[in-house]
Automatic annotation (TrEMBL):
Species this protein is from: Geoglobus acetivorans
Protein name in UniProt: Nucleotidyltransferase
UniProt entry tagged with the keyword Zinc-finger: no
Protein origin, superkingdom: Archaea
GO molecular function: hydrolase activity; nucleotide binding; RNA nuclease activity
Cellular component GO terms, alphabetical: toxin-antitoxin complex
UniProt keywords, alphabetically: Hydrolase, Nuclease, Nucleotide-binding, Phosphoprotein, Toxin-antitoxin system
Length: 116
């Protein structure tokens, strides 16, 4: 079984990649660039899958993170790819991921401090 701390790293890496891929873009640039859209959607899938794989105890300890919504988005992206709402994806990238990144970094700090 994979160490759940690696899922935390996966989430952070996927957020950072998404930020890198969309840097300097507005919604129109994003929506017109299929390569970036595909990369962002893939990284959102990774975030959702990694959140799903975290132990229940971790998810319960940090209830301010919308774990179910994150996993739910992953399910939508996987199963309804061609019906994905790009405006919703863009809103998540710009407005939700920065907050999630801060919270996941907090979890990482807490885990690192408890393992010393």
């Amino acid at each position: 079984m994979r160490d759940y701390r690696l899922y935390i790293d996966d989430i952070l890496e996927a957020i950072q990649r998404t930020e890198e891929y969309t840097a300097g873009m507005d919604f129109e640039d994003f929506a017109e660039n299929r390569l970036v859209v595909d990369a962002v959607v893939r990284n959102l899938e990774i975030i959702g899958e990694s959140c799903r794989a975290l132990p229940r105890e971790i998810r319960e300890k940090y209830p301010d993170i919308e774990w179910r919504k994150i996993v739910g988005l992953r399910n939508i992206l996987i199963h309804q790819y061609f019906g994905v709402d790009l405006e919703l994806v863009w809103d998540i990238v710009r407005n939700k991921l920065p907050e999630l990144e801060m919270k996941i970094k907090e979890i990482k700090r807490d885990l690192d401090a408890s393992s010393v």
